[in-house]
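Q: How would the structure tokens look for this protein?
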Amino acid sequence: MPTTFALSFAATDTFKTWLTDTGLPITLTVLGALILARFAGWAGGRITKRIDDNYQQGDALVRSEATKHRHSVAQVITWVVITIIYVIATMKVLGQLDMPIGGLVAPATVLGAALGFGAQRVVQDILAGFFIITERQYGFGDTVQIAITGSATDAEGVIEDVTLRVTRMRNADGEVITVPNGQIVKAVNLSKDWARAVVDVPIPATADINRVNDILHRVGVDAYADTGLRPLLLDTPSVMGVESLEVDQVSIRMVARTLPGKQFQVGRALRVRVVTALRRAGITVAAELENDAVVGEAQ
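A: Here is the predicted structure in token form.
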């Protein structure tokens, strides 16, 4: 009985010693890592919020390229810092458990090689994300069209998040699309520096082309003089001429340089003006342009 009591006391004393010398430091390390990670996430959120607030409180109608890049870089740095914190905490916990980190080098090398073959896509995603950010291909707030490996249709929407591994975007239906960066074949940035609104006007083949060109030219001049459209336009919309010929109709193209991301709004407004001007001149247009004009008036 005394022997059993002595063994029990010794086991309890050993556990208390382990709890004091090892368990408590491990707990503090884990808690410290969680607190630091939360703080890094909070700081990153504050930085990106300040960037957004500076844009929203300014006079700019669209985000500048520098603002988009700073927003994306802030998100990536936050993600990297949190990852580093967790890696360091894991290594410290292993050291506190008296696990020989040096002895894990050889197994880690083998495991790393095995994971390398199985995680090639992850490495590819991270490398692709690195070049997307450093080359400023697109950033937060950009409207992009992305061709994805193995997908028959392109993903199009507004960028909401760019990390080293994935790109998140929201399409016109409000759906969030997450695309691994390594699977992006082609990215078309529709809101970089400037954009172009293209309006194809289908008219009957019997219409006077020169008269229609004059009407469209006046529409462009009036649109550039309009106080509502002028801030969105970089110059006067111009008439390019006949774009296509068909048996019963001719398509005349009108283009306008706009601020990045505003080409859709300007295109809808121009269609409304074109349909109205041609209707007043007694010239009929195709049904699809009429429908586009109705949508533009509603919006």
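The chain is about 55% helix and 20% strand.

Strands lie at 143-148, 155-162, 166-170, 176-180, 184-189, 195-204, 238-245, 249-258.

Upvote if useful.
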